[in-house]
């Protein structure tokens, strides 16, 4: 009886144990499933990894870098050579692709070895664990840190595939000397990209993360070589290389550079500053993303043009002069700013005179005025009197008396083409007042100038300040036939994974009439054409002998500012020179700086380029007519000088010049000789 009772008790106990065991397993299973679901709901951990942001010129060269003192350049796993990944897996975590974040066998072996040695002699961290530690944790040795490491390891394994984890690890591990990730390490130790690493180089680098302060070849060549052999042995054991390959790699002589390739911008520092500002203002990025987001910022900078611009300024302005300079160049077709100089010495003054200084543009504003005039019925042959003039206004009290340079006047009528070439101020003010003062303000704004303009008679002579880069933008719109553009410093921005996050839109809106823009462009070539000499010489006379091709341009000056701006259809540039505090420019040599810098830049920047690509090509709605430059009428065979001038079809002069017909009677022999050439062959 007692035996039966005992048997029942044991059976009851067994059932209770079984039920409890099932409940425990179920609870654990539910707990694990709940934990897994919680991990999935949490999603992938945010990988806020500081990465160096790199700035590229148009040719792909690096012109600048921002970082926190740690060099980090993310590259995709596809760009990493197999020798690198094989070496790292062989030495760090051979079961990486088969475990789920933890290698239990290694943990057991490491624990036994550490107990036996009565100290830590062996580690068992997997690549995933090390990646979690690199991303989220400090290096303190506490239980809470260990638990967090395990938690992040699980989150990584659940939410990322193995290749993502391996890519992240390879891009975040420390290789010493401020180099984090395989790309930064390869650049520092070997001066090359990681994609070009050999087996010997890869195996040397794979051994460093174990102890960068010990195994760096810069710190100890012997220890680095010993560690390299250990890596090669592990690769041979895992059968990713042969014994012969391991031996050859261990014997290969490696050249260690030991220098980071990218530093603060040594070229175009003003351009570099402007790009960083536009990353915030136009791309909408915050300071941390810009500095440490691992961005790849592709800019419009042309390294050759930048060097040419910097040299032109340094060799033109005397070293003893305090005159400053602001310079910018642009591709009129795209708006790409290809060169920028904000001052003569960035270390002395980081103030950007090309993008920040607001200075009176003087007569460089006149092409904008004359575009408005063309829109309102003027032509290059429109005549106005050039003579000392006092403009009186309706209130009977205000008056304005503009003066020409050196008080030189035609004391007669001049054409708009000649007025522009000689920079006649009276003609400009008469045109401005005839059109109405609102017209010029509206035209200036239409051409991209955002600085506020004063509606005054002197606006026609450039008394309201503009920024050099604004004037350059306006000239570029004229050069491209009237397409609206804005200065583009940043072409596109990619994140550290190569995803496009910002791109500059292409210009589309037509803001000027193409035919009028071309007529104006051709009028602007007149400042370099001696055929337009009259009561004064053309304003570009001093640089004509330095020109090898046709340019459109306009100079300008005030008491304290000197300007030169101009273009071909594919390159425009502007130069401002003057004193920062508005001191008067008195020396003749100083007044010529802007023109000389401009022509030297244009000639050198375009040297070797096909002249046809930079030639002005007339649109269909214009026609060329030989014009007597003095009276603006159609030239005849008797005119001593005539210039081919463009008009919108239907606006060309109908009247022929008759002022020189009497010369036929005076010089019949000369006329006879002249008749041997057809008149259109003597246009130039």
TrEMBL record:
Membrane-crossing residues? 16-39
Q: Which residues form a coiled coil?
A: none
Where does the UniProt annotation locate this protein?
Cell membrane
Q: Which PANTHER family match?
A: BINDING PROTEIN TRANSPEPTIDASE, PUTATIVE-RELATED, PENICILLIN-BINDING PROTEIN 1B
On whether DNA-binding is a keyword of this UniProt record, the answer is no
GO BP terms in the entry: cell wall organization; peptidoglycan biosynthetic process; proteolysis; regulation of cell shape
UniProt domain Penicillin-binding protein transpeptidase: residue ranges? 327-573
Could you identify this protein by its name? Answer: PBP1A family penicillin-binding protein
Glycosyl transferase family domain segment(s): 60-235
- Any Pfam family matching the protein: Transpeptidase
Its UniProt entry gives the catalysed reaction(s) as: Preferential cleavage: (Ac)2-L-Lys-D-Ala-|-D-Ala. Also transpeptidation of peptidyl-alanyl moieties that are N-acyl substituents of D-alanine; [GlcNAc-(1->4)-Mur2Ac(oyl-L-Ala-gamma-D-Glu-L-Lys-D-Ala-D-Ala)](n)-di-trans,octa-cis-undecaprenyl diphosphate + beta-D-GlcNAc-(1->4)-Mur2Ac(oyl-L-Ala-gamma-D-Glu-L-Lys-D-Ala-D-Ala)-di-trans,octa-cis-undecaprenyl diphosphate = [GlcNAc-(1->4)-Mur2Ac(oyl-L-Ala-gamma-D-Glu-L-Lys-D-Ala-D-Ala)](n+1)-di-trans,octa-cis-undecaprenyl diphosphate + di-trans,octa-cis-undecaprenyl diphosphate + H(+)
- Which GO-annotated molecular functions does the record name? penicillin binding; peptidoglycan glycosyltransferase activity; serine-type D-Ala-D-Ala carboxypeptidase activity
Q: Which SUPFAM superfamilies match?
A: beta-lactamase/transpeptidase-like, Lysozyme-like
> Which organism does this record belong to?
Siminovitchia acidinfaciens
């Amino acid at each position: 009886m007692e035996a039966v009772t005992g048997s029942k008790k044991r059976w009851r106990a067994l059932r209770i144990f079984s039920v409890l065991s099932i409940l425990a397993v179920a609870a654990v299973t539910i707990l694990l499933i709940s934990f897994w679901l919680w991990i999935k709901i949490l999603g992938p951990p945010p990988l806020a990894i500081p990465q160096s942001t790199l700035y590229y010129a148009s040719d792909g060269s690096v012109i600048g870098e921002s970082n926190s003192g740690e060099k980090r350049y993310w590259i995709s796993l596809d760009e990493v050579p197999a020798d690198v990944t094989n070496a790292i897996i062989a030495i760090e975590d051979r079961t990486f692709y088969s475990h789920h974040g933890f290698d239990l066998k290694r943990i057991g072996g490491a624990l036994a070895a550490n107990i036996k040695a009565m100290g830590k002699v062996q580690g068992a961290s997997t690549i995933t664990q090390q990646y979690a530690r690199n991303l989220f944790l400090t290096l303190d040795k506490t239980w809470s840190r260990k638990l967090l490491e395990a938690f992040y390891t699980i989150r990584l394994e659940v939410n990322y595939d193995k290749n993502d984890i391996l890519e992240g690890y390879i891009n975040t591990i420390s290789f010493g000397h401020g180099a984090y990730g395989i790309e930064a390490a390869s650049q520092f130790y070997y001066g090359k990209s990681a994609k070009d690493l050999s087996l010997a180089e890869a195996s040397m680098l794979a051994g460093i993360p174990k102890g960068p302060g010990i195994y760096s070849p810069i710190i100890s060549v012997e220890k680095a070589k010993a560690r390299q052999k250990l890596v090669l042995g592990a690769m041979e054991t895992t059968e990713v290389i042969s014994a012969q390959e391991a031996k050859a790699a261990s014997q290969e002589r490696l050249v260690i550079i030991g220098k980071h390739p990218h530093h603060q911008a040594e070229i175009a520092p003003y351009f570099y500053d402007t790009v960083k500002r536009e990353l915030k203002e136009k791309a909408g990025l915050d300071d941390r993303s810009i500095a440490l987001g691992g961005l790849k910022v592709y800019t419009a900078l042309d390294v050759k043009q930048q060097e040419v611009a910097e040299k032109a300024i340094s060799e033109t302005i005397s070293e003893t002069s305090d005159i400053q300079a602001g310079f910018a160049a642009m591709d009129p077709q795209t708006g790409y700013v290809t060169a920028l100089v904000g001052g003569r010495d960035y270390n002395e003054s980081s103030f950007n005179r090309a993008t920040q200084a607001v200075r009176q543009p003087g007569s460089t504003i006149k092409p904008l005025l004359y575009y408005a005039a063309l829109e309102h019925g003027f032509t290059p042959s429109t005549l106005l009197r050039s003579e000392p003039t006092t403009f009186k206004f309706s209130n009977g009290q205000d008056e304005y008396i503009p003066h020409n340079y050196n008080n030189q006047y035609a004391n007669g009528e001049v054409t708009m083409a000649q007025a522009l070439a000689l920079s006649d101020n009276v003609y400009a003010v008469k045109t401005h007042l005839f059109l109405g003062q609102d017209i010029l303000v509206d035209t200036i704004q239409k051409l991209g100038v955002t600085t506020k303009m004063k509606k005054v008679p002197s606006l026609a002579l450039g008394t309201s300040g503009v920024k050099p880069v604004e004037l350059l933008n306006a000239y570029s719109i004229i050069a491209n036939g009237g397409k609206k553009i804005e200065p583009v410093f940043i072409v596109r921005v990619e994140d550290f994974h190569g995803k496009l996050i910002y791109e500059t839109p292409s210009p589309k809106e037509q803001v000027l009439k193409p035919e009028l823009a071309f007529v104006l462009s051709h009028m602007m070539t007149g400042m370099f054409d001696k055929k337009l000499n009259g009561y004064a010489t053309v304003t570009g006379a001093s640089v004509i002998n330095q020109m090898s091709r046709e340019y459109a341009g306009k100079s300008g000056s005030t008491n304290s500012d000197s300007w030169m701006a101009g273009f071909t259809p594919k390159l425009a540039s502007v130069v401002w020179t003057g004193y920062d505090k508005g001191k008067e420019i008195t020396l003749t040599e100083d007044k010529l700086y802007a023109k000389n810098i401009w022509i030297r830049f244009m000639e050198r920047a375009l040297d070797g380029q096909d002249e046809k690509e930079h030639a002005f090509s007339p649109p269909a709605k214009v026609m060329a007519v030989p014009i007597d430059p003095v009276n603006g009428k159609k030239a005849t065979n008797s005119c001593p000088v005539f210039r081919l001038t463009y008009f919108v079809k239907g606006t060309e002069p109908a009247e022929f010049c008759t002022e020189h017909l009497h010369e036929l009677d005076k010089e019949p022999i000369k006329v006879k000789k002249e008749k041997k050439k057809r008149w259109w062959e003597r246009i130039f």
